[in-house]
Amino acid sequence: xxxxxxxxxxxxxxxxxxxxxxxxxxxxxxxxxxxxxxxxxxxxxxxxxxxxxxxxxxxxxxxxxxxxxxxxxxxxxxxxxxxxxxxxxxxxxxxxxxxxxxxxxxxxxxxxxxxxxxxxxxxxxxxxxxxxxxxxxxxxxxxxxxxxxxxxxxxxxxxxxxxxxxxxxxxxxxxxxxxxxxxxxxxxxxxxxxxxxxxxxxxxxxxxxxxxxxxxxxxxxxxxxxxxxxxxxxxxxxxxxxxxxxxxxxxxxxxxxxxxxxxxxxxxxxxxxxxxxxxxxxxxxxxxxxxxxxxxxxxxxxxxxxxxxxxxxxxxxxxxxxxxxxxxxxxxxxxxxxxxxxxxxxxxxxxxxxxxxxxxxxxxxxxxxxxxxxxxxxxxxxxxxxxxxxxxxxxxxxxxxxxxxxxxxxxxxxxxxxxxxxxxxxxxxxxxxxxxxxxxxxxxxxxxx
Length: 449
Prior knowledge:
Blueprint: E1 2-6, E2 9-13, E3 18-36, E4 43-65, E5 68-83, E6 92-108, E7 111-122, E8 128-140, E9 143-154, H1 158-162, E10 164-167, E11 172-175, H2 180-189, E12 193-196, E13 209-223, E14 226-238, E15 240-249, E16 254-261, E17 264-276, E18 281-294, H3 295-302, E19 307-309, E20 316-318, E21 324-326, E22 333-343, E23 348-357, E24 385-386, E25 395-406, E26 410-417, E27 435-442
Parallel strand pairs: 11-16
Antiparallel strand pairs: 1-3, 2-3, 3-4, 4-5, 5-6, 6-7, 7-8, 8-9, 9-13, 10-11, 12-15, 13-14, 14-17, 15-16, 17-18, 18-22, 19-20, 21-24, 22-23, 23-25, 25-26, 26-27
Domain TonB-dependent receptor-like beta-barrel: 26-419
Keywords: Cell outer membrane, Membrane, Receptor, Signal, TonB box, Transmembrane, Transmembrane beta strand, Transport
Protein name: TonB-dependent receptor
């Protein structure tokens, strides 16, 4: 695996009230995968993957007066992917162009209002306007309330559009939405399609995800060394993209693809506590509880249409709202603990992070490119996650970073993500194990005349 990124930026001060920042983020990611059978040493699976990403952007900020600030900008995103996972070695392209405008206003001393709008145009899908409004009110010097409301937009990625993967040994295949219809028609023409498992009118039709988000929170500073945030959030999602089993072949091979969940939501609470233990050391703890569910499933449960099976007695029972766990691949509980230590004489920093991801469920063989068959968490066949299903246990990750600064212009960073090399290749194939990295940052500063 090779991952190279380059992120230069330039800041220019037009006037005392206006500055301009131009930046470019570019990256090239390459990987090659080969899996061999233990018994024979024979090559079981191989693929090559290369992704090129480029995002130029320009942004200008104008301080209209002491109480108002305007920010405007525009940019574009160019992505190219070349991989054998899509059934050929042709380049796949996707371009996105965007612009944004934001106004920050302090009408009175204790009140801050931020309003903005963003426009996205994607080469594969329609354009989208995303407005947002945020308000913060400082009740007293050390306590404030904040709230925000806005919409969001997320286009399908390359995998969800073009994925083309067959695994005869594990008896499944995964096709992206742009090719699944042709593949199913060919199977039907050859007499190899046994049954459809999903609405045929929806197969191959995939739309961007649209979200409407509401957030409300509060911030409190107990003293100069300790502060805390608590935030409540709710996101109504239209067109959430999920993996679905869409067909079954005559040789009992399951065909998977991607489709939209018409109505879903995520809601929960976030808690952050930060403390400065002394002049050199500070720490923080974050926790998130997430409730993510399909609203159509909730309606079916209310109407008594969803049943489960007791794994011991094998008796059927009617699923209640309390039994329903939620959407797949999402942990209800996530926690992080961070510790930063500064060495002033050496101008060095050490940063440690401990991350915990709680248990979650999966939909089965849902796009694993490594050729491994994934057992579904849904063991009673009701197509939802409930209390008697098979879940993947929670896990910990530990990250460590050491950075050194020279002459305020150059920073060298050495680090390790997942230092203790946690792996779960069956259920978390993108968790590749220990990842060592080196980062070099250099700032060019113009001398004042």
